[in-house]
Amino acid sequence: MGYRQLTQGQRYQIKSGLQHQCRLRTIAEKIQRSSSTVSREIRRNSIECTYCPDQAQQPSGRRHLVKRAGQGHIPNRVGIEHRPDRIISSSLIHAIG
Fold it and tell me: Per the structure, how many domains does the chain have?
């Protein structure tokens, strides 16, 4: 099975389960994810011991938009002087000159 991010609905189900003092395994079974996924989600997105699904969803939404824009997770930080076509033409000028 491939990697899938948690949906906003799943994040709210985690919050609801925590409010009702459910075990992580029970929450994980309900959203059909592993208990380690639920544990990591809670650890990464809790503020002062309170799980915040809205805060967790914001970075996820940004990653999704970047991915859909065709940029993936690697920002384009290559300057014009480092582009392959510029490097080759610069090397030829120095070799000829």
Answer: 1
Helix and strand tally (H, E) in the chain? 5, 2
Strand partners, 51: 46
In the beta sheet, which residues pair with residue 50?
A: 47
Q: Residues 6 or more apart from 12 whose CB is under 8 A from it?
A: 53
Residue 11 falls within a domain, yes or no? yes
Report the pLDDT value the prediction gives residue 47, as an integer from 0 to 100: 87
Over residues 17-71, the pLDDT tens digits come to: 999 999 999 999 999 999 999 999 999 899 888 998 888 777 655 555 555 565 5
The residues near 17 (Cβ < 8 Å, ≥ 6 apart) are 26, 27, 30
Identity (one letter) of the amino acid at 59?
P
Residue 19's domain comprises 1-70
